[in-house]
Amino acid sequence: MNFRGKTKPPNTGFQLAPMIDIMFLLLCFFIAAQIYAQWETEIDIKLPTAETGEIPDRLPSEIIVNVRADGVTVVNQRQLAHDGLLNLLGRVVEIYPGQPVLIRADKRTPYEHVIGVLDLCRQVDIWNISFATSTVEE
Q: Is the pLDDT of residue 122 over 50?
């Protein structure tokens, strides 16, 4: 007995639901990857330790200014001179007043380089400044 018959099954066409699922998963992946890419950290910077140091929640548009041991400032993986950093901070403050800035200085960085970055922040009226530290290693 032949129960199937001689008719062909109808053409189902392009399946949209699986395509939407794949696009949604790709979107989730790229959003998560983009968030982690924004959390800039210089690998060659060793932060000073503090007993009361804690890892705060990151702010979404926080600018991270890395100050290396030799006094070079790095923002978004670009080395910036004194004037370049001043221009960058000035442009950001014009667009986003109250912009948070995180200063990550190496523990061997001379104090004058950190004060130089603080002075630049003060010149462009940035008041929301924090300093990165690491926890005490046991």
A: yes
Cα–Cα separations (whole angstroms), residue 111 to 45, 66, 67, 70, 129: 15, 14, 11, 11, 16
Measure the CA–CA gap between 102 and 64, rounded to whole angstroms. Answer: 5
Q: Which residue has the tokens 């330790």?
A: 49
The strand pair at 63-67 and 73-75 is best described as: antiparallel
Tell me: the pLDDT tens digits for 52-98?
Answer: 766 666 666 788 899 998 989 998 888 999 999 999 999 988 988 88
Domain residues for the domain of 69 are: 49-135
Residue 67 maps to which CATH number? 3.30.420.270
Which residue has 């940035």 as its token pair?
Answer: 126
pTM exceeds 0.90 for this model: no
